[in-house]
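Good morning N.,

You mentioned wanting to compare the apo and holo forms, so I went ahead and generated the holo version with zinc ion. This is what I fed in:
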Amino acid sequence: MAPVDESFNRYAPRMPKEPVLVIDGRRSFVAAWPPGAVCEECGVEQPRGGGYVGPVLGERVDYPKPDARYTCPPCARAKLGLGERELSGHMCQHCEDDSDLHIDGLRFLPGELDSMSDAERLEHVSAKYEYAERGWQVLEVESAPQLTAGTGVGWAVYFKAARQLW
Ligand SMILES: [Zn+2]
Ligand SMILES: [Zn+2]
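and this is what came out, ligand included:
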């Protein structure tokens, strides 16, 4: 097993399609690994699509990073007992860093949500986009006219992980 190349000098942004996880108490996200880095659980090297690196602050990791620990995505998910689809299907783009609250901007048919009560709206949106199946809990659905485009009426969906993972 080659040592991690600590002279590797560059930064790697977080890959937004994978959730940020707290693994063994360290905030970790998926990013490119430096040469020689291997998963501390299974020893896999350079997972395709990147692997978890932690501890990290903010939205990028700066190498060299001597305190970094590496976990491949399958090992990270197994460690936290995450189901196959749990915490999937969301890209943090307009969510606040380090917040548990996530936001999706979605478009619906004209009138689709208008006559519903708040509770019906939560249920409808959660079912239509399988939030519950993906391990999320929808908290609020709010009209978002700035997201309207063509015949799609914009709504903002606020949600969080359905269970406390750490
Ligand atoms: Zn692994
Ligand atoms: Zn998010």
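Residues 102-161 form one domain.

Happy to go through it together on a call whenever suits you.

Best,
F.
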